[in-house]
Amino acid sequence: MKCYLPLNVILKQLMQNLKLCQELYKGTTQFQLEKHTQKQYQLTFCLS
């Protein structure tokens, strides 16, 4: 299942699922995450 969500929704999901995502996004800055999500970045693994 692919998830395409608005930036604010994805960032909210990232915060809610921080423990699941922190390993995958280890060392990634907030700016880089926002840059990815603005391009409709797929975060399916964070939206389980």
Structural class: mainly alpha
H/E element order: HHH
The portion of residues forming beta strands comes to under 5%
Radius of gyration: 10 Å
Helicity level: 40-55%
Quick check: average pLDDT?
Answer: 61
* Dominant shape: globular
Q: What's the count of strands?
A: 0
Distance, first to last CA: 10 Å
The total count of helices amounts to 3
Uncertain stretches of 5 or more adjacent residues: 44-48
Integer tally of domains: 1
Describe the structure.
- The protein starts with 6 loop residues before the first helix and ends in an 11-residue tail after the last helix.
- It is globular, with a radius of gyration of 10 Å.
- The protein is built from 3 helices and no strands.
- It has one domain (7-46).
- The chain is mostly helical.
- It is 46% helix and 0% strand.
In brief, what are we looking at here?
This protein is mostly helical and 48 residues long.
